[in-house]
Hints:
By secondary structure, the protein is α/β, with parallel strands linked by helices. It has a single domain, classed as Alpha-Beta Barrel (TIM Barrel), CATH 3.20.20. The protein is built from 10 helices and 9 strands. It has helices spanning 30-34, 45-48, 53-61, 75-80, 87-95, 120-129, 134-141, 176-184, 226-240, 277-287, and strands spanning 4-9, 40-43, 68-72, 105-111, 164-167, 188-189, 191-193, 208-213, 264-269. Strands 6-5-4-3-2-1-9-8-7 form a 9-stranded parallel sheet. Strand 5, helix 8 (176-184) and strand 6 (188-189) form a beta-alpha-beta unit. The protein is globular and about 55 Å long.
Amino acid sequence: xxxIHIGISGWRYKPWRGDFYPEGLTQNRELQxxxxxxxxxxxxxxxxxxQTPERYADWHADTPKDFVFSVKxxxxxxxxxxxxxxHKPLANFFASGVLxxxxxxxxxxWQFPPSFQFDAELFGAxxxxxxxxxxxxxxLARQHEPRLDGRASTKxxxxxxxxHAVEIRHASxxxxxxxxxxxxxxxxxxxADTAGKWPYCEDLCSDFVYLRLHGDKELYASGYTxxxxxxxxxxxxxxxxxxxxxxxxxxxxxxxxxxxxxxxVFCYFDNDLKVRAPYDARQLLERFGLDTSLPTTxxxxxxxxxxx
Length: 308
């Protein structure tokens, strides 16, 4: 069976200190602690600014062997350029160090703003430009702008598939044409729980499933009740088994997703404002027995020898 990855979006939040993170834990050890309390983290600093190869390499070194990161792509591409003339910015992003995550590199998340409407030609051209493996990503990275000369990462570290997920926030995307476009490119449509603010869609468009749980009552703030977590656990169980929940909320109900024995699942809690995300993630990990291999517990000091 494919793996299930459950974790948090970002890890450096001031309110988490002395709560999720034990008192006295230094900031430069927060990733070490968090990556031993959940089995995956979505990097979101990359959304706001290009990171550096050294930083990605440090993140790789600070996390356990079987850990997986997802990476949120730059808003400069999705929110500012809005997918127009993005070849060089794409090259810069992949040259910024993403490939330094090596075997711990999971999907790339492309989040679009609420004002961005579906344009089939523009969106299709964008998907055509996305690298489908690490060698293609490295080749693209070598086309970076001169300003990155001397501080770019352009090595593939072996050939591995590179996955992409798209999060939409405008109702114009809720058309079958969009779903079919994603399926042609094996790009996942993010299942985003946004307290009803933006479209909620569960169409399976890829060989993996990507969930972002922002809060079901209050965006970015409300925690999930045991009943809500049980419901999400049931859905993850179905998707992981290659199935679709009977009550799935679909854009395209006329065309079924390709049958699979199993789908890899990536689930990230983004309800961080009131320090709910890491605790909710941990409860869902417990549902699948994935907590037994994690040596740190939210809110408790790490056992001696656990952190590097």
